Amino acid sequence: MTDAPAVPDATATLTNGARMPLLGFGTWQIKGEDAVRATSAALETGYRHLDTATIYGNEGEVGRALAESGVRRDEVFLTTKCPPNRAGRELDTLRRSLDLLQTDQVDLWLVHWPANGSTTLSMWQAFVEAQESGLARSIGVSNFDAALVDEVTASAGVAPAVNQIEWSPLLFDAGVLAAHRSRDVVLEGYSALRGGSLEHPVIVEIADRTGRTPAQVIIRWHLQHQVVVIPKSASPERIRSNADVGGFTLSDEDMAILDSLGGR
Ligand SMILES: NC(=O)c1ccc[n+]([C@@H]2O[C@H](COP(=O)([O-])OP(=O)(O)OC[C@H]3O[C@@H](n4cnc5c(N)ncnc54)[C@H](OP(=O)(O)O)[C@@H]3O)[C@@H](O)[C@H]2O)c1
Questions:
Q1: How far apart are the first and last CA of the chain?
Q2: Rounded Cα distance, 5 and 76, in Å
Q3: Is the four-CA dihedral 117, 119, 125, 128 of positive or negative sign?
Q4: pLDDT by residue (tens digit) across 47-104?
Q5: Is 251 in the pocket of ligand 1 (CB under 6 A)?
Q6: List of residues 6+ apart from 131 with CB closer than 8 A
Q7: Whose C-alpha lies nearest to ligand 1, atom 11?
Q8: Options 8, 23, 27, 56, the catalytic residue
Q9: Which atom of ligand 1 is nearest to the CA of 215?
Q10: Taking each helix axis from N to C terminus, what angle separates 59-69 and 32-45, rounded to the nearest 10 degrees?
């Protein structure tokens, strides 16, 4: 593609030394041929990080797009997730994900959201075993708070490398970010473009002033905070535009204005 943007290649370093691209492609709610097309467009644009999940029902399509892309598997950071209703069947669930994704290891496997009570701890133990057996290079969690991160860490003696949570300027909380940093847990944000952030007048003003789209401002804000961001789009044009965030920098003042939108 001739007009492909220079996709930022900044990475977060996980506790085991693995590098996770700060910009990834989210795939929730894209299914069937649309998922193949969108994932192919993302790879062609230059995204090298894909985020899927067992419950998205599109691992097969994401795997197909990756296999057909010509991009080497080891150039792409691949995440999938296990829902809590698979407790007790975690490794079978992961093996099915690997089959669908046409790979023998994911880069990151996440507990999609907490299960009830001690089930979360037993799930985490299974995740540790998956990492030890090489089926998942890194393991992490999603939708956990810091107390639960501490609980699973204490129970298995292994900390999650990543916590994927909802995050955007409107949800910014310096305490939450600091809690992740102090634990060496990489904060990965999701739904950055939802919840009214694209229409927020302050974000729209910064976008207009800097000659960027609101989505680009929000994505750039994540990158400058070293927070992983995984915008989803089914539109090739928006897939490209969302990645075209390498050629500008938000000023410290604009970063502070965006931070203040979270009210914390
Ligand atoms: N762990 C979890 O529990 C969890 C929960 C939610 C999401 N996630 C992950 O995070 C990813 C991102 O979150 P998300 O899918 O909820 O939301 P998102 O990426 O924040 O926003 C996606 C929405 O924004 C639209 N959009 C994308 N780029 C745009 C642009 N430049 N201008 C205007 N609209 C734009 C998309 O529509 P079009 O497709 O029409 O462009 C879609 O409606 C998911 O895909 C998934 O991988 C994880």
A1: 42
A2: 18
A3: negative
A4: 999 999 999 999 999 999 999 999 999 999 999 999 999 999 999 999 999 999 999 9
A5: no
A6: 109, 137, 138, 139, 158
A7: 26
A8: 56
A9: 31
A10: 40
Structure tokens at 22: 């700060």
Give the separation between CA 21 and CA 11, rounded to whole angstroms: 4
Give the model confidence (pLDDT) of 19-31 as tens digits. Answer: 999 999 999 999 9
Instruction: Indicate if ligand 1 lies below 6 Å from the C-beta of 142.
Output: yes
If DSSP codes are grouped into helix, strand and coil, which group holds residue 159? coil
Q: How far apart are CA 142 and CA 166, in angstroms?
A: 9
CA distance 102 to 45: 21
What 3-state DSSP class applies to 240?
Answer: helix
Residue 20 CA to residue 202 CA, distance in Å, equals 30
pLDDT at 4: 67
Residue 127 tokens, joined? 């995740």
Q: How far away, in angstroms, is 152 Cα from ligand 1 center?
A: 28
Residues 6 or more apart whose CB falls under 8 angstroms from that of 208 comprise none
Q: Respond yes or no: is residue 56 known to be catalytic.
A: yes
Cα distances (angstroms) measured from residue 223 to each of 31, 188, 227 = 28, 11, 6
- Which two tokens mark 241? 């535009």
